[in-house]
Design goal:
Mean pLDDT: 89
Largest sheet: none
Distance between the termini: 61 Å
Length: 78
């Protein structure tokens, strides 16, 4: 009775994860898997940002400069 296998919204990787975790895990194991997933996503974000910074010649000096600039819009009431 695998109703999720016909779900067009899920890709093959998502379906594989559902199959892997068909049976409930002890809470401790589930929390470890969640932490690993967050670490992996964090590394992917760092890689993406690193590539973007390299492609756009963004440096630490650029971030330092931006941190001192004003980026908020004014809240003018008419």
């Amino acid at each position: 009775m695998e109703t999720y296998s016909n779900n067009p919204r899920l890709n093959e990787q998502q379906l594989d994860m559902i199959r892997l975790f068909r049976k409930p895990l002890p809470k401790e194991y589930f929390m470890q898997i969640k932490r690993l997933a967050v670490q992996l996503l964090g590394r992917q974000l760092e890689d993406t940002m690193g590539k973007w910074e390299e492609e756009n010649n963004i440096t630490e000096a650029d971030y330092e400069k931006m941190s001192k600039e004003h980026h908020r819009t004014s809240n003018k009431k008419s």
